[in-house]
Specification:
By secondary structure, the protein is α/β, with parallel strands linked by helices. The protein has helices at about 40-50, 120-140, 155-165, 180-185, 200-210, 225-230, 250-255, 270-285, 305-315; strands spanning about 1-5, 15-20, 30-40, 60, 65-70, 85, 100-105, 110, 145-150, 170-175, 190-195, 215-220, 230-240, 260-265, 295-300, 325-330. The chain folds into two domains: about 1-115 and about 295-330, Medium-chain alcohol dehydrogenases, catalytic domain (Quinone Oxidoreductase, Chain A, domain 1), CATH 3.90.180.10; about 130-265, Rossmann fold. The structure holds NADP nicotinamide-adenine-dinucleotide phosphate.
Length: about 325
């Protein structure tokens, strides 16, 4: 099979595209013909070695996939050849990745793709929608009628957070960096969309939500806690999920006096049972056309190194080169 893989960690140029032996599915695995996979920032951290993961070389890069089952192991129930599936959490914790024509994936990580949802849509939504679900439902426990502020509503995670927060019945205030991206965030249903480059966010959010926001979701690697705590309502919750190296100052007094709570999590550590629970809602929302993660562009497998470079320059270098997901077609 054709695959995008590395034989050691390093820059995007370490990614080779070439033939590897077809994987054989284990007893609890399904063999998936991958039709689409999405690039996520974590793919680039694993490839570069910034996150130390156990890697079996040649290591196929990538977490997300959507495609069609071609074979199943003897102990697999409920999945069969010909079924369309999507999933995430591959290319991690010793598991091989998804950027290949074929991927052998434990059946517990695979979810049926609804009939009217394309492989591109399912792959784009995979990791980021599960992340948004875990953060909003399990961590922040966002309730209908509450107000959430999403800093960075146009990105992969942010676009899923905005849409899922609306689906959960919340009022959403979100930010984006350009007029086109603010229009996009408004099209996700955000009630108020702000320019993070120009506006005094604390003052504007106070005007839009005089009692403060119940949840503050930070997509940025260097949160401004003074601003976040100033925006939070009494008993407000803040969600952190980026910035491993980040060590910002923290306004302890204002935070505890308001009775706020801080939630941090890493999606890939959520077990398959929890991710499957998220997939039920995600599938229902995708099938209804109510959850669509934007696709920036579609590239062939040969462009995986270019895609890693683009994702890195955008998410880490803050170039803004990418809006939504980069989809690779093996
Ligand atoms: N913990 C987890 O489980 C988990 C899961 C997924 C991702 N992550 C992490 O979450 C982060 C975001 O991932 P992603 O895939 O959503 O990245 P992304 O698609 O590159 O999105 C980045 C977002 O940041 C916004 N942004 C850039 N500069 C900003 C600023 N100064 N203030 C506010 N917003 C700004 C961008 O807005 P514009 O494009 O409008 O400028 C865009 O919405 C990454 O660090 C990633 O590693 C963590």
């Amino acid at each position: 099979m054709k695959a995008a893989y590395i034989t050691r960690t390093g820059p995007p140029a370490e990614i080779a595209v070439g033939d590897l032996p077809d994987p054989a599915p284990g007893p609890r695995q399904a063999l998936v013909r991958v039709k689409a996979c999405a690039v996520n920032p974590i793919d680039t951290y694993i490839r570069s070695g910034a996150i130390a993961m156990p890697l079996v070389y040649p290591f196929v890069v990538g977490c997300d996939l959507a495609g069609e089952i071609v074979a199943v192991g003897a102990e697999v129930d409920g999945l069969a050849p010909g079924m369309r599936v999507w999933g995430s959490n591959q290319g991690l914790l010793g598991r091989q990745g998804t950027f290949a024509e074929l991927a052998a994936v434990d059946a517990r990580w695979l979810f049926r793709t609804p009939p009217d949802v394309t492989d591109h849509e399912a792959a784009a939504a995979a990791l980021v929608s599960i992340t948004a679900h875990l953060g909003l439902v399990d961590n922040a426990m966002l309730r209908s009628g509450e107000t959430i502020f999403v800093n960075g509503g146009s990105g992969g995670v942010g676009s899923a957070v905005v849409q899922i927060a609306k689906l959960l019945g919340a009022r959403v205030i979100a930010t984006a960096g350009t007029p086109e991206r603010r229009e996009l965030v408004a099209s996700f249903g955000a009630d108020v969309v702000l320019d993070y480059r120009r506006e005094d966010l604390v003052a504007t959010v106070r005007d839009a939500a005089p009692g403060g926001v119940h949840v503050y979701w930070e997509t940025q690697r260097d949160p401004r806690f003074d601003d976040a705590v100033a925006m939070l309502a009494e008993g407000g919750r803040m969600v952190l999920m980026a910035g491993r190296e980040s060590r910002p100052a923290f306004p302890v007094g204002p935070f505890y006096v308001k009775g706020c709570r801080l939630h941090g999590f890493a999606m890939f550590k959520a077990d398959a049972h929890r991710q499957a629970a998220a997939s039920v809602d995600i599938n229902r929302w995708m099938a209804a056309g109510a959850l669509r993660v934007p696709v920036d562009r579609v590239l062939p497998l040969e462009c995986t190194a270019e895609a890693h470079h683009l994702q890195e320059s955008s998410t880490v270098g803050l170039s803004g080169a990418v809006c939504g997901k980069l989809i690779i077609e093996p």
